[in-house]
Batch of 2 targets.
Target 1
Amino acid sequence: MATLKEVQTKIVSVKKTKQITKAMNMVATSRLRGAQTTMEAFRPYAEKFSEVLGNIADKAGDDASPLLTPREEVNKINIVLMTSDRGLCGGFNFNLIEAAEKLMNEKVSQGIDVSFTNFGKKGRDWCRNNKQQINKEYLNVVGGKFGFNVASTSGQELIDGFLDGTYDEVYVVFANFQGMAAQPPVVKQLLPIPVIETAEADTDDTSYIAEHIIEPSPDELLNEMLPKNIFIQIYNGLLETSTSEHAARMKAMDNATKACNDMIDNLTLAYNKARQAAITMELMDIVGGAEALKG
Amino acid sequence: MAELLKLEVVTPEKYVISEDVEIVMAPGTLGEFGVLSGHTPFLTSLKPGKINYKDASGKEKALFVSGGFSEALPDKVTILAESAERRRDIDIDRARAALERAQKRLAQEKADNVNFERAKIAMYRAIERIKIAETRGL
């Protein structure tokens, strides 16, 4: 049986841990709210954009942009891996990295070289430890406050790399925020741009969408929109990953706080038992001593 | 009073404007254009520049857009821009710094370079921002 002092020290230490996990849970909750607001603010733009893009893609030629053309031979690919910068968020980063690793192994087994672009320290560290080639790393983005310009700068670099043949395909791995309980990793092909879904034909808008005057030509307009589409996807990935990170951390910290409570309960029980045992022992000593004195 | 149409200016970060207006003037890539209620469906890309509009009370207002797209429908104009700022939100010092930077880069790069094109666009953006910020009474 542990001594009284030992148990007491342990209780104090667990209580301190609990304070930390509780505070982290609260911070994550408030950040989550912020991240969700940003995500919602972005939705109207993204929706309108894809609607317009769908219309244009319909009218433009198939080979309007080099961003649409798949390479005949794929030798090198780049994976954009989005993870968080900080840990203590359960299996969140592990899941993302696992998804990236699966994609990587699949490509390597086909004899394709893989390189990485990292958003977030956790993914970067994993790449380093596994001696993967890192093209570019962006830290302190995911989970913090960032603007659209982060997405357009990094997106432009990816497009440049694709056009000059540094890599033939680009994939992005990010966490899809489905709600508090589920943030599964998603793998998406960024470049070459997969076939764009054209606008649904059953909306009331179609009658006049069909008669749009388009300036400059559909091809030129598409050429301007496609890079932006990439930026939008990256921005969306970053927003979703950030939101998911906070949600995952909230959950993890909530569990940790609960675990702390359990431990405190158990330890308090142990402490009380130990104390009672000590008292009983002392009493027995006294009684024994008194009996002995009586002779 | 003229019939109104809805003007919506949307950026990835927020809804900048959503209000009923009389007329909208926007800087299309092939030239400036104006939209009144009942316009033919029209889709164009935008240059960095100024969007002028007259609100329901007939007051003229202006807005900076960094380029993007505009879709005009008979009763609605949607502008999708990477960034859009009202005059009072323009950071003129930042715009001036950006202008200087862009000019420096233009002097260094060769004319057919991609970076040259980008610097040029950055310069236009800065110039337009400064122009709007310095216009009075908007």
Target 2
Amino acid sequence: MKRPLLSLFAFFAATLAASAQPAFEAPPPTTAPVLDAQQRRAEYLHRVDEVLTWAAGGGNAKTDDPAKLDLAMIAAKIVRGEDLPGCSQRVIALMKEPGTGPFWMFPSVCIAYLGRDRLTPEALASIRTAWRTTRQLRGDTENHWAMYYLSLYLMAELYPNEPAETWYSGKSSAENLAEARSYLVHWMDLATTVGQGEFNPTNYIGEYVMPLQFLANWAKDPEMKQRGTMMLDWFFAELAVSTLNGVLRGPNSRADEGSVIERWQAMASYFSWLLFGNTPPTAGYSGWGLYFAPLAKNYELPEVIYRIATDRTDDYLQRDRARVRRFWRYSDELSPPVYKTNYVRKDYAVGSTTGGRMDPIQAHVWDVSWAEGDPRGKHSTMFSLHPHSAPEAMMATFVTYPEPMIKGVTFEGKPSYDSPDKTLGCSPYERVFQDLDTVIALYDIPAGTRFPHINGFFSKDLLNVTEDKSGWIFAQGGRAYLAYRPLAGYEWIKYLHYTTGWAKTRLDLGDRLLTSPHLKNGTIVQAASVSEFKDFAAFQAAINALPLTFKLEPTPSVQFTSLRGKKITFTYDQTPVVDGRAIDYSKWKLFEGPYLNAEIGGRKLTLTHGKLERVLDFNTLKITDRVK
Amino acid sequence: MVSSTPRFAGLLLGFLLSAAFAAAVPAYDFFICANINRNYVIGSKIVTTNGIFQRAASGDWQHLGYNDTGISAVAFDPRDRNVIYTTGNNGLWRSLDGGKSWRMCNDWTMTEARDVAVDPHAPDHVYLALPDGLAASTDRAQTLVRRENGLPARGKYAQVVQVDRTRAGRVLLGCERGVYLTEDGAEFWRQVLPTKEMVLDLQQSPHDPQVWLAVTQSVGAWRSTDGGVTWAKLPGVPLTHPLYNVTFDVTHPQRLAIGSWGLGVLASEDGGQTWIDRNAGLPDPHHVCRVGVDPTGQLYASVVGATLFVSADFGRTWKPDSLAGSVVNKFLIQPKSVK
């Protein structure tokens, strides 16, 4: 058994030497599950080594001179035992200009722990000094606070019994530790009872799992160590169930232009590649993703999570709860619930929340996305939205004055917020209902609203886009047929894309927007697999035969019998009715589906695949595995 | 005698000028909370000097304390200028040694504090305006306790807190749903001015402590002449744009100024009866986030995206001040303290 593995490693080593970022440049990996546990582990370790090799080699800069490396690359060199004196010198240099918040805190914690017995005392002291001299901002988002308190907890444990004047906070080690622990337990309690505020983030998953991994490895308190381990599983289980071929699908609490249009272009894909091996990694392993690698070999992905992530032989429906980030003002509730649905099939996925207000800048409410053989560069998604931009939305979520902030955020990694043709964000004037692979989105936009229209995204990668005289627009995406029904008149405009959050210009990549200026409006999308029909014409005929009536005045309302035979009645701001039964969202569980199940308030997540079951019980802090 | 008369007159004039000068020597210090960071995001390096600045006699701004890029407000212990409170992203910071060292006073249950005030008659008592209410301390912020009895369950986003200088424990709070008053050190609050949107600033007149002004996001400017118990809308202040703050002029009882996003600087020289646009010479658009008046009567306007401007004639003409590129979050005129 050992020889083939050694050969495999030799091949991997040769590959690493020949290519800077092999998996990124290589053909896409197979999406077929690797059933042999030993092989699966070996491939995982190989991927970890690929990241470490790339990082220790200076990334795109291709230099192993520590003086030119950042902390993530220094971390890779430390764990590989390369040029430790040089690493120490670099750490000392970098600590002369510390950062000012959680994005600096967790990397410095990473180095402080990795370097405990490897870096010079001077280098370690330089980190400790920076934690005294430089005030650390806690930030204003859930991921900021997770990074902040996970980092503070670990540093306070690493340097116990030190007085208040040795910490930037002016609090002693014991005070810092107690505060951090208190918040972390509170946050985990919240996440495991009513759900995360930042659910299914396309990129911010890294901001959670990296410091959680530090906690799972380095916490001295066994309870906190266990909490770290269990939360890692929790996050990766949610990632697994929300992906198709490793690409995160459906709604996101927070996304960006890149990851909404090119769904693969997200740090979530990096983690899918690393853990599941079923999609290519992102460029530079998403940058921050590098911090997961130094300890990645200590992590054993539970088989049940791997199976959930990679088995798409059966269709499944997952319905979950989450919550909106804190609304400080302009809301009767601090964190209203979010109801999200994901329906995943082999060829495509359909996902949504029920619309309304969530994160005002970065929410992604719904989409139909299809599988691509190689997701890189593919815009495999279809959705519509009202491009909402308003001071009230900003004021609800942030404490800054809204007027300067609306312009300010466009310089802070969210360039499209105040653009009428944007494709990111939620609106208080959107309501969404999903039943399996049917989505109905209704809009009732008050007169005088800024950007009084809706945008529908039509990808450059759609085939055979056909504007039928019936009013339906038919298309094919990958192995999915799509039918899009605008409920009011529209015109086509070019979609111009910000390739990154920091892009100064927008590119015409060939996508289009269906833009409709009618305040009372709506979209219906019905998806199906190509394999369900004889041909495209048959699909069109089937859609045209579906009973559909709608009205937009005085309130948008749709009656539609879906391709799955469900008679859906959905009126804006009213409870959806399916086959005569009203949807009762109050009965939704925290997780409900064939793979993930948890009760509201339960603090217990059951992961199931076939005969495999794993229970994460935060009441007892116990993990229970069994084969049914 | 003929020759002596001018000399006497000159001496008399000199005496009168000296006396006038002595009387005009400000009994106040003047501070600002300023950020000079463009496009700062959480975690990035701070490459400029930010935080508290004091106006020196030379006219220079002298930095005080920590280089704080997120500062929103400052308050001092009236007994001891070395006791400093600042608010910002993390909550409340306190220094007991003139800004050399600091302690974060709150834990995770409080965040993103908007304003802080110290009771001049009970200087150990500190009030903290929070996005979800109010906290108070009776031990110089060593411990902070929520004091929200009487505030609404929702709508208590507190932007500004001001202590009435005439009586201990009398505090006004500007919230999402109006102005609230406590007369017992925040044991109980009552609404004295209901508003449908944010109250953005509250100020007590330095000339008549019964007179208070409030400005709002969308419902104009208001005045109270009975210590904040009843309020009347100030005529002549447009409702078209948010009014970010209001200021009195310690040198002139009739002078008031408002800073507005969109309206820029509005000034009144008749106690608020009439208001005049004082934007000539300021950058367009008129995105003024704060106005302030220093102890000599100079008017300042912080223009977002530009810099801090100063006017020696109450806004008729302007010139850029130092601190290029700054955005001022707070002007604080403070009676000179003992220490």
